[in-house]
Amino acid sequence: MAGVRAAGVFSRFANSKYSLLSGHASRSLSVSSSVAARTHVSYELKDDVAVIRLNDPTSKVNTLSVQMQAELTEVMGEVWSNGAVKSAVFISTKPGCFIAGADINMIQACKSSEEVTSLSREGQKMFEKIEKSPIPIVAAINGSCLGGGLEFAIACQYRVATKSRKTILGTPEVMLGLLPGAGGTQRLPKMVGLPGAFDMMLTGRNIRADKAKKMGLVHQLVDPLGPGLKPAEERTIEYLEEVAVGVAKGIANKKVSLTKEKGFMQKLQDTVMGLGPVRKQIYKTVSDKVQKQTKGLYPAPVKIIESIQAGVEQGGEAGYVAEATNFGKLAMTSESRALIGLYQGQVICKKNHYGTPEKEVKKLAILGAGLMGAGIAQVSVDKGLTTILKDTAVDGISRGEQQVYKGLNDKVKKKALTSFARDTILSNLSAQLDYSSFKSADMVIEAVFEDINIKHKVLKEVEAVIPPHCIFASNTSALPIKDIAAASKRPEKVIGMHYFSPVDKMQLLEIITTDKTSKDTTASAVSVGLKQGKIIIVVGDGPGFYTTRCLAPMLAEAVRVLQEGVGPKRLDALTTSFGFPVGAATLADEVGIDVAAHVAEDLGKAFGSRFGGGNVDVLKTMVEKGFKGRKSGKGCYIYGKGKKDKSVNPDAEEILKKYKLAAHPAISTDSDIQYRLVSRFVNEAVLCLQENILRNPVEGDIGAVFGLGFPPCLGGPFRFVDSFGAERLVGIMKRFEDIYGNQFTPCQLLLDHAKNPSKKFHK
Amino acid sequence: SWRFFFLSFRKIYTILKNSLLIIQTKSKKTLARPNVKNIVLVEGVRTPFLLSGTTYSDLMPHDLARAALQGLLHRTAIPKDVVDYIIYGTVIQEVKTSNVAREAALGAGFSDKIPSHTVTMACISSNQAMTSAVGLIAAGQCDAVVAGGVEFMSDVPIRHSRKMRKTMLSLNKAKTLGQRLSLLGSIRLAHLSPELPAVAEFSTSETMGHSADRLAAAFGVSRVEQDEFALRSHSLAKKAQDAGLLQDVISFKVPGRDIVSQDNGIRPSSMEQMAKLKPAFIKPHGTVTAANSSFLTDGASAVLIMSEEKALAMGYKPKAYLRDFVYVSQDPKDQLLLGPTYGTPKVLERAGLTMSDIDVFEFHEAFAGQIMANLKAMDSDWFAQTYMGRKSKVGTPPMDKFNLWGGSLSLGHPFGATGCRLVTTVAHRLQKEGGQYGLVAACAAGGQVSDTHVQHSLVVPAMIAFCTYAKHLYEL
């Protein structure tokens, strides 16, 4: 369910595939190892060019770890002192990765902002030496060149990059609540101009090689090669090196110029940017935009602007000092910790902890070609899964096929895909009305109407035609899987796979296992989810599982708040200013008022008065009048095509007036309303951990943020309890409990944490 | 899908008559197969191949094809009504003459009762025409088929943009003045930008030159190696031209211009001069230049293919048996131009021959880099094991048997016409050099088989899609 469109900084975080940080634990560096032979950096002379190769043998990616930096410094010392060397090339021998960033463990190991600042100063100095190198240095980039890796590359005199899809450049630090702390805020504006630099550093987005060339971030592109006398990637890196060596020689003997002829537009832009008032206006515009988007909840963008501004307006040294100081400050913020925690959690949730499935799923059948079913098909066909999309009506499959086509065609329009690739991908899809060829399906995911009888009916129909090894997965948002599995002849093959709408945008997949679900079935489901590009949490069975169960009490509270006379717009403002990417009223519209009513009723029955609050009849009345949310054009708001500003639905307001409740002044301040909403969410999340629905707090945080849009700056409900303080939260809840009763009764686990402040969910 | 074909050559008389050449008659086995009809190449001709935009520039494609057909009629003196069928290959089609085979046949004076059709398979279109002919004869449908190819790059169909076309088509249907005016009013500047025929792969949007440059880089082919090979091609072509070996070329009186009787793209240069050129596709570090690529060419070719029975009955002395052919295809992105490497061993295995049995090799030279890359691939155990599922490398053709009369780099490459040139050249070289088996490969399409217990047979493999080669094998 939860049709959340995460927005702003967060969605970019969620959609990015960068790996700024190595997922590995910090490597202990004994004295002996640093004395021993170099393991990360090696170099050889090709004529008068020093080819310096980077490869961290302990990790899948190169990072600027302590060891890497030490060896680099050592090698550069040797290169610079060798009179025979006229130029140098930096290249990574690791496939798909130049340098993926700084080593986050180095920053996390620091105890104070001063320590981090001095780390930053050291990085700045190292890169300054490279920038001022007496011989030209060419960075030969293949694969990810991110964060510190990019700062390293832009300190070099020349950059050659492969046009491979894997080659991405960017400064994703902002998504970890940090800033580029090794000269990035100072060099980038000079290289790509002020607007380009702001864009890169404030969004943290990945830039592909061809775009980087246009922006002036790299000088020259090299095509990736196909198979030759060696594997393609190996030969491509070799070719890149050959080209880079050629360029290095060319620069050294002045045949290749480092200054690019500027075009008219570039000159014009430079002239305009030379004007103080223009720059001032830019700073202001950018700051306003950042304020509007972050609601002041994220400190990193502000510090990035400050650092850039210091450098541009007060000169290099002031800029470097500002950058290092701000970097130190940011590293100590709770926001940065929360975002880093999410990043690390995401890495964990992108692994299969259940082993390799006995049989790989190659053919997937989906029942129901609605938004969900077609969405699941959309993320499957382009991963090479042969996909059947079955519905009961021609209209249904036609709409579903169109959705899959449109998803792919939009990528063609954005040039992320060729029309030829689109057609090839679509050939994996078969839309049909019958069960033909289900006999060769490896997995069936049902996305039919949320009614236990219909689910039982299709389960029986499917089990009559599928092979014995085939897994039956239910994409339900609230019905307990064991109830669905009750109709199955082979409950060990039944599992829940709860996708979030829109499936192609929302990264989370919640997998639900029952007592009977076999480990191999779980391994298969996780494997399919990972193939589909999902971040996966695996939770226990129960009404609403984890995500729906957390969201339901918050929405119940939102309905009560609305009944108490807080309008949808104010409710949205209160939730977004707390950090939710989507306001509570808009969220209800996105999820669907009918779905919300359904869930509220179901879970209300299962959990009793704890899930009360708002009157379910409000939702039911809205559904009766056809106000089902965005999909029907009307919900709390009225949605028109192309209209950017949605207006409040006056008829919905009428309904709310009919069910009006008196607000309690003692707990109705803006802040109280926010905590009423959030504390119910958080308490239910903690209760899920207490009841073993959740296996661990990491998955709880990931599920809440990636599935429901819990404020990323808080890092998820568990990290929120850790940083906010369980005792403080319990105190607030008790105030609400006095008036509203058990809906605000803190659960036992939360009370335990309140009693013992040393207890933390995250170490 | 690559197909190869074997031409089996009947050479006895010509060899004996040729007192200047001392030919060691080889005693290799025949490639004849029981219950398979012997199919022979009777004759092959072509117009001179000219750089686009030169003497042919005011013609139309069917004019060139017509000239080749008339040349063939003249050489063979075959009665026009004996031919059962005519097939032509072409790549960039002139819209007005989309079945160019039919227009050319009628214009060349063939009976209007002879059916004709046009095939297209990129650079091996005329290989496809030839193998289709072999198929018709083998199936007992025909006894005498004319196959050929034509390409005319001096004029190509340049279209209005899709938007403009849509507007113009709607204009046809508009009933009222108001509707027409509103349609005309909808025309924007963007409507006016024309659409050129793509020289790029549809599936990858990559141009041939770009692909060749990447291929050369993948196999580590240097700029010098490419320039050397291109220079070799031009020098050998010049020598062959001067020695009068290019007997397949017919003279052609171009209306309003002089008689053309020689290819005009053969220009041996020097390594120094070639080294001065800048890369044409991948800049600034690429290695494929204008000098080591084949150039845009106008030209047409034609061959007469018959069942052996019929040919002998009519008193012809066939030049070769067409024995076998194979078409193969690969990944259009990274292996676009590697067809010859894949096709050669396949057709050899079909014929039960090895590389050393072949006396004459004719490979289509799209780019020097592409030829060199194929030679390196054929010489690599790793490539054979990793990509071809073979135990060991294919092996390379010896250079003293390879494209000795020049190739597409120097003679020119009218896409649709090259295949027939390759096959005819193999036949002529086998005669001249006294070989028995010849093999043709092209990165594009087609090949065919025929066999007798006579002494020459020719394997003609050809390959598919913007990348393939035709190979022919002769049996002497």
Automatic annotation (TrEMBL), chain A:
Location of the protein in the cell: Mitochondrion inner membrane
Catalytic reactions on record: (3S)-hydroxytetradecanoyl-CoA + NAD(+) = 3-oxotetradecanoyl-CoA + NADH + H(+); a (3S)-3-hydroxyacyl-CoA = a (2E)-enoyl-CoA + H2O; (3S)-hydroxyoctanoyl-CoA = (2E)-octenoyl-CoA + H2O; 1'-[1,2-di-(9Z,12Z-octadecadienoyl)-sn-glycero-3-phospho]-3'-[1-(9Z,12Z-octadecadienoyl)-sn-glycero-3-phospho]-glycerol + (9Z)-octadecenoyl-CoA = 1'-[1,2-di-(9Z,12Z-octadecadienoyl)-sn-glycero-3-phospho]-3'-[1-(9Z,12Z-octadecadienoyl)-2-(9Z-octadecenoyl)-sn-glycero-3-phospho]-glycerol + CoA
Pathways involved: Lipid metabolism; fatty acid beta-oxidation
Annotated GO CC locations: mitochondrial fatty acid beta-oxidation multienzyme complex; mitochondrial inner membrane
E.C. number(s) listed in UniProt: 1.1.1.211, 4.2.1.17
Sites annotated Important for long-chain enoyl-CoA hydratase activity: E151, E173
Active site per database record: E510
GO biological process, one term: fatty acid beta-oxidation
Domain 3-hydroxyacyl-CoA dehydrogenase NAD binding stretches: 363-541
Xref: InterPro entries: 3-OHacyl-CoA_DH_CS, 3-OHacyl-CoA_DH_NAD-bd, 3HC_DH_C, 6-PGluconate_DH-like_C_sf, ClpP/crotonase-like_dom_sf, Enoyl-CoA_hyd/isom_CS, Enoyl-CoA_hydra/iso, Fa_ox_alpha_mit
Domain 3-hydroxyacyl-CoA dehydrogenase C-terminal residue range list: 544-639
Residue numbers marked as site, Important for hydroxyacyl-coenzyme A dehydrogenase activity: H498
The entry's keywords: Acetylation, Fatty acid metabolism, Lipid metabolism, Lyase, Membrane, Methylation, Mitochondrion, Mitochondrion inner membrane, Multifunctional enzyme, NAD, Oxidoreductase, Phosphoprotein, Transferase, Transit peptide
Pfam families linked to this entry: 3HCDH (PF00725), 3HCDH_N (PF02737), ECH_1 (PF00378)
Matches recorded under PROSITE patterns: 3HCDH, ENOYL_COA_HYDRATASE
Chief location: mitochondrion
Molecular functions per Gene Ontology: enoyl-CoA hydratase activity; long-chain (3S)-3-hydroxyacyl-CoA dehydrogenase (NAD+) activity; NAD+ binding; transferase activity
Quaternary structure annotation from Swiss-Prot or TrEMBL: Heterotetramer of 2 alpha/HADHA and 2 beta/HADHB subunits; forms the mitochondrial trifunctional enzyme. Also purified as higher order heterooligomers including a 4 alpha/HADHA and 4 beta/HADHB heterooligomer which physiological significance remains unclear. The mitochondrial trifunctional enzyme interacts with MTLN.
Family according to the record: In the central section; belongs to the 3-hydroxyacyl-CoA dehydrogenase family.
Protein name, as recorded: Trifunctional enzyme subunit alpha, mitochondrial
From TrEMBL, chain B:
UniProt KW Cell membrane keyword: no
GO cellular component, one term: endoplasmic reticulum
Keyword hit for Mitochondrion: yes
Domain Thiolase N-terminal: start-end pairs: 39-309
Signal sequence annotation: none
Its EC number(s): 2.3.1.155, 2.3.1.16
Pfam family name, one: Thiolase_C
Family per record: Belongs to the thiolase-like superfamily. Thiolase family.
Name this polypeptide is given: Trifunctional enzyme subunit beta, mitochondrial
Gene (UniProt): HADHB
